[in-house]
Amino acid sequence: MTIKFVLLVNKQGQTRLAKYFTEFLTTDERRALEGEVVRKCLSRTDKQCSFYEHRQYKIIYRRYASLFFMAGVDDEENELGVLEFIHCFVEILDRHFGQVCELDIMNEPEMVHYIMDEMLLNGCIVDTNKANILEPVQLLETIDK
Amino acid sequence: MQSNMSSKLAAKLQTAKNLLKSSVNSLGPDREFENLIRSIGECKSKQEEDRIIFAEIDTLKQRLSDPKLDKTRGREYMVRAIYCEMLGHDVGFAHVKALQFASEPNILTKKAAYLALTQFLDHNNELVLLLVNTLLSELKSDNYIAVCTGLVVATKLIGPELINAVLPTVMERLHHPKEHVRKKAVMVLHRFHQLDPRREGSLAGVDIDRSFRTMLCDKDPAVMSAALSALHEVIKTDPKPYKNLVPSFTSILKQVAEHRLPKSYDYHRFPAPFIQIKLLKVLAALGVGDRVASENMYAVIQQTLKRANNTHMIGSAIVYECVRTITTIYPNPQLLAMAAESVSAFLKSPSHNLRYVGIDALAGIVKINSQYAQEHQLAVIDCLEDPDDTLKLKTLELLYKMTKANNVEVIVERMMSYLRTTTDEHIKKDIVRRVSELAERYAPSPTWFIAVVSEVFQLGGPHVESQLAHNLMHLIAEQDEDLHRSAVEAYLSLLDKPKLPERLLEVACWVLGEYGSLAATSSQNNTQAQAVMNKLAGVVKTQKATEGVKGYILVALSKISAQSGCSLTPEAEELVVKASSSQNVELQQRSYELQSLLTSAATSAASLQQAVLPLDGSCEDIDDTEMIRISTLSFLDGYVNDALKAGAAPYLSEEQRTFGGSKSLRDLNGDKGSLKFEAYETATAPSTTSTTFKQNRPGSSSTSSSHYEPHQPVQTSASSSSQHNGAGAPRASGPELQLRGTGKWGPAQFESSSPAAAKASAAAPTHSTDPRHADLLGSPLAARSQPTHVSERDRLAASIFGGSSSTSSASAASIAAAGQRPPVKAAAAAPAARQLAQAPPQRDLLDFDSPMKATESPAPAPAVPPSSSQLDLLLDLDVLPPSAPSSTHSFQPYNAYPTQHLPPPLAGAAAALGGMLPVDLLGGSILASGVSGGTGGGTGGVLPTVLGPASSTLQSAGTGFQQTGAATHAAPFNLNQGLASASGGFAGGMMQTPVHQGIGASQPIADFQYQYQHGMMAGSGLGTTMPLSSGGYPGQIMGVGSNMPPAAVTGMNKSNMTGAPMTTKPGGKPASNDPFGDLI
User: What does the UniProt keyword field contain (chain B) (predicted)?
Assistant: First the structure.
């Protein structure tokens, strides 16, 4: 039960954030994988379900305005659970950035990474408590100012 | 919602831009970062993006190599490098800089540098070594954010050999006052466990499991959740040591579900749903196959399931996880009923996501109890027809698990229609595998199988395993003339299509060669044969024929020519001549053989041809005793002695030879695991083996791949390499056995090569009188929906589900009946049958279990009389009462026919010959014996009479061979085939066996010529047949033990259900020397 990667891609197919867990792919492999995954994802309609299989991964995605949040998971993962985890992640981003949008993520990608590091370790969901997750991140913000 | 979002987005864009302007100072005075983000955000194409990044990389290189590097901007540079890497460009230049920034005191720079490192590197990178010291100082830092950063880095960059460097520090951090640190420290240990799951490396002797148990009791739920993840991982590796944790997990789950955790862990008013899901997964891992552990979970799972509901997606996620756990652990009827209820809610939902998980969960439930599929059949059909690919694919997966003999046609047709439309190679491969498996296991008739498999070849192309081709040829060979004729016609027209896959071409060529002469009525036989020849010759031009296919064509040409008696057409002639100068020795040899055979001036040319290339010779049988005699090669002794006296080098086994070439033989022959000869070694070889012979090949009995070479061992390398080249197709291997072992063709349907019976079995579901089925057709649900569509859906549902319901009851009934049936009523059999009849639920379980070990229990076709349906069942169990009345012979699978099999000792003897004996000699001939049983069976009750004469003929042929070997082989060029035919359909011979990878089997040309020159006679020619060929149906050997008395029923039954092979010796005692056991 592992989330292998998380991808944030806009509807033009441009990668906005990519984070891999437990397995390491070379730059070329990532590029190829992301290209295929994103192409498949963008070709899907609202009428279809939010999962599809690609190579050994099952991709679970959710769309927020122009941004697609995708998670590549293994066979064991609970699809609905991951779908809700994505939403939980977005809610936390929302609380941190205040009405999060694509540009926020582009401007502070490292913050998004730090938030995800609090929630996902080794591809396992370890924490979804908003206060817990945002505490160290907000501490960093105060140092920044 | 959408428009609302986009307007919000526009507003955000504005504010963000303003923000950016205000924070310019922190991002650097030259606004490089801002410009980069803006240009990336505005760019329209990938090319433009790449250009931007290339420019950015140049700037970054400059900045980072600048000696007056502004360290306060380290964070910005790192983020820029992360961008470049994320967009698919190599940023190797930044790696070392990132290392330097990691030791900066500024926490923001430090964190950014570490983040960059985790994005760029993996634990195999050498740079990580340089990082360890810095990392250790982070782990020991007073600043908990630094410690957290260090721990996150440790999960990603510490490899197996560095575990020891950081492990003590990480263990200390487990007691850090801050829960953020503890949670991450646990996950670092989790990672270390992943790197060394068996505790053989750096973790040897470290009791991190104890730490996990301790951390499970941590007061902070997040730490507990992390410990759960870790424990789940170790439990998956080995659940046994953790069974005592079941009460802890159940009580935690109970507390979580009862909302005892702080409100902050709620997600949409569901208490810590992600922790609940994880706990359910852990329980599933602990409860699988463990009744006691499972019983301790039932209550809490039930409670969790009740508390969760479908009001929100996350509730559904918990419900779904509950269902998955319920279907994984030891089943409980009450929970199953609840799970089924939840599944029906999923399936009725309009949401595709919920229907998707519903189908998935249903697959889990039907595995335990097939009944639950019944009520959802219409929902399942809807999902199957849904335009959504994912849903359709998932439904096909469910159907695959539900496939039975009576719905296989509908389901396979569904899969095929999906296969026709999909372009995804991974999915194609998957479906091809499934279709082939289902077709092999449940094919209702040979005609159907041939049609399906041929289409799979066309659609699946490169994904099809060669095994399927051999099975197809094998099956065609077993059928009667009508089918052969229609197969020939089908393949003739098929060859007109362009770009056929190689495997299909091979099958087509083989069929045309073997049965091409049947294509025509006798009056125009010659012209027709010539047309076939031209077609075959044309294949080389129209298709992309590989060497292997060409070999098939050459053999086919010679067979047609021999059987029809007409000479080669000019086109064919041209092909043959061309092949004689081919670089491929294999083809060359075939070409020369063919030419000599056809132009042979001997008076008996025609009869020789007929003898060498008999019509429909692939199903012939050879006699057991003859087989023993041949397999010992005793008739070679005189020749070997003469040769030794004349100064020839004695035979050396493979170990004694040092040529590199012989290695490939072993590769091809031995180590695949497909044929194991060791187990047979205990069998005593008949004493006819002469001592000289034994001396000549010391140790060869133990080397399965050594290869008999009476003279000039130097040629071995040539020979093995030629064989290597010639091996057009991979060798026969494991999967094939299944088809034999499970009595794949066993069901009554197999007999239905007559179209009427096939139709009857196909019609079975619709005309079934099964009450449940009748119920379905008149169900109120069906009546409510639109009538036209429903009737169609209904029909589909009926064809898929209707049968499966009747099956279990029918089979149970016939089991019960079998117990009372006179022929089987042996003392030992009766209790077994009773046992079966008493335990229907277990049977169900097995029924739906993974197809590999499932015993199929097809519903009897209505056309078949009751006694045969019982027999049917028996066949499922691979049991054959020897005293069965001859009228039922037609339902026997060939592999169960009692008299036609090599007894194990013989197989042992054959095997003991090791590499000397060609594999196909062993496998192929056994095949032949099996096949003829099957063919006989297929023709109905005449089997016994057929067999008698056949074997006596063969015997005489064999004897003739021994006595007049030289005469028979007046044409030494064709030792190979000559020997084959003389020994009575020696199935190993290259022209006759369908499984023979034909081409692959051949004699090295050098060898051949040598023998030719020396006028080597028949006996020595055996060397020719030897070469590896692949073929063989090792599975046939298993048929060996099937002539068992009823007493063996129990053993059979049991062994089959557990997936073990059915090799039970006549005494009901399991055969100890079954070499293929592990392949089933």
Answer: Membrane, Protein transport, Transport
Q: For residue B570, count other CB atoms closer than 10 A to its CB.
A: 12
DSSP assignment of A72-102 equals EE-TTS-HHHHHHHHHHHHHHHHHHHTS--H
The tokens for B208 are: 């991190």
DSSP lists the bridge partners of residue A3 as A73
CA atoms within 13 A on the CB side of B623: 18
The HSE-up count of residue B342 (CA atoms within 13 Å, CB side) is 32
- The answer to whether B974 touches B594, Cβ cutoff 8 Å, is no
Q: Pull the structure tokens for residue B759.
A: 């139709």
For residues B205 and B840, which has the higher predicted lDDT (pLDDT)? B205
Nearest CA in chain A to B323: A78
Angle at A51 between CA A45 and CA A52, to 5 degrees: 90
Unique residue bearing structure tokens 């187990």: B679
Q: Which residues of B touch A124 (CB under 8 A)?
A: 187, 190, 226, 229
CATH topology for A3-144?
Beta-Lactamase (3.30.450)
B121, closest residue in chain A (CA to CA): A24
Task: Provide the residue range defining the domain that includes B556.
Answer: 500-633
B1050-1078 pLDDT, tens per residue? 333 333 333 333 333 333 333 334 333 33
Q: Which residue has the higher pLDDT, B1 or B295?
A: B295
Among residues B716, B718, B707, B723, which one has the least CA distance to residue B586?
B723
The sign one gets for the Cα dihedral B254, B256, B257, B263 is positive
Asked if residue B552 is part of any domain, the answer here is yes
Percent of chain B with pLDDT over 70: 55
Across the A:B interface, residue pairs with CB atoms under 8 Å apart total: 199
Is B589 a member of any domain?
yes
Residue at B732 is within a domain: no
Contact B356 A49 (CB under 8 A): yes
Separation between Cα atoms, residue B834 and residue B820, nearest integer Å: 9
Burial of B666 (0-12, 13-18, 19+ CB in 10 A): middle
B893: left (phi over 0), alpha (psi -120 to 50) or beta: beta
Query: Cβ of A129 under 8 Å from any chain B Cβ?
Result: yes
Whole-angstrom distance, CA of residue A54 vs CA of residue B389? 12
Question: Are B222 and A109 a contacting pair at CB < 8 A?
Answer: no
Contact criterion met (CB < 8 Å) for A65 and B8: yes
**Would you call A138 an interface residue with chain B, using a CB distance cutoff of 8 Å?**
no
Predicted TM-score (pTM) of the model is 0.61
Residue in this structure with the two tokens 């497909």, named with its chain if needed: B674
B18 belongs to a structural domain: no
Interface contact flag, A110 B356, Cβ < 8 Å: no
Q: How many CA atoms lie within 13 A of B865 on its CB side?
A: 5
How many domains does chain B fold into? 1
Residue B653 corresponds to which tokens in the numbers above?
């086994």
ipTM over 0.90: yes
CA B561/CA B612 separation, integer angstroms:
12
Closest CA to B831 of B1053, B525, B508, B594: B1053
* Contact assignment for A47 to B5 by CB distance below 8 Å: no
- A53 contacts chain B (CB < 8 A): yes
CB contact under 8 A, A1 and B390: no
Write the DSSP symbol of residue B1070: B
**B197 by DSSP, 3-state: which?**
coil
Question: Do B222 and A48 lie within an 8 Å CB cutoff?
Answer: no
Measured in Å, how far apart are chain B's first and last C-alpha atoms? 57
Written as one string, the DSSP assignment of B741-782 is HTTTT-SGGGGTTSHHHHHHHHHHHHH---HHHHHHHT-HHH
Question: What distance in Å separates the CA atoms of residue B66 and residue B468, rounded to the nearest whole number?
Answer: 65
pLDDT tens readout for residues B617-661: 665 555 667 667 667 777 778 888 888 888 888 877 777 776 544
